[in-house]
Amino acid sequence: MFEAVIFDCDGVLVDSEVLAIRGERVALAQMGLDYSPQDYVRRFVGLHDKAFLGQLRADYRARIGAPPPADFEDRIIDGRRREMGALTVVDGAGEALAAARARVGRVAVASSSRAHFLESKLKRMALWDAAAPHVYSADLVAQGKPAPDIFLYAAEKIAVAPERCLVLEDSVNGVAAGVAAGMTVWGFLGGGHVFDGHGARLKEAGASATVDDFEAFLSALT
Predict the structure, then answer these.
(1) What domains sit in the chain, N to C, each tagged with a CATH number?
(2) If we measure between CA atoms, which residue out of 202, 106, 206, 95 comes closest to residue 155?
């Protein structure tokens, strides 16, 4: 049915979203912006930093009634970075990349992470060799998720028509991007940031199915 599988990275291959959310929320709370974990995941997970930080700046102006401090973005990124020492691979990610390549033929990674962070995380978690050479950051395209640009870029690079690509995504923004690209999208629920009802949200965004972990993903991948 598929000729390629395109994986998101954060929250799918590496369990970074739960860490980023924790560090960012602490930094934001110190500046007067409080978000519930569920609302934070719904609104911000899957966005490229440019869009993510832009929305936070708008929230600050709306809630605080003043421009954000000069070091606003640095404090948020520093909060995220402080947590990344605890980064782990999502269980079964390496095996899933290898199995998808063997069963389907081609694999790619299409991520909202900045290019240098994306490469660093995959290499640190010993996933780079399984994913390369088709590893793409939204730095390469005009618009990040939920726009379809990064998925269409990846499909072009691997020379597979979008309708023959399967996307594995953990965020509402990522699912929306894959659907907008004309691809089949499965929602992935194996990351540490997933909360009750998250699967339903991914289906509402357009995921045709959800999988709880990579064992379920490989069982469904034929």
Answers:
(1) 4-16+87-220 (3.40.50.1000), 17-86 (1.10.150.240)
(2) 106
Report the distance separating Cα 194 and Cα 40, nearest Å. 11
> What are the pLDDT tens digits along the chain (222 aa)?
899 999 999 999 999 988 999 999 999 999 999 999 888 988 998 888 889 999 999 999 999 999 999 999 999 999 999 998 899 999 999 999 999 999 999 999 999 999 999 999 999 999 999 999 999 999 999 999 999 999 999 999 999 999 999 999 999 999 999 999 999 999 999 998 888 889 999 999 999 999 999 999 999 997
Predicted TM-score of the model (pTM):
0.88
B/e letters for 130-155, b = 16+ CB within 10 Å, e = fewer, are bbeeebbbbbebeebbbbbbbbbbbb
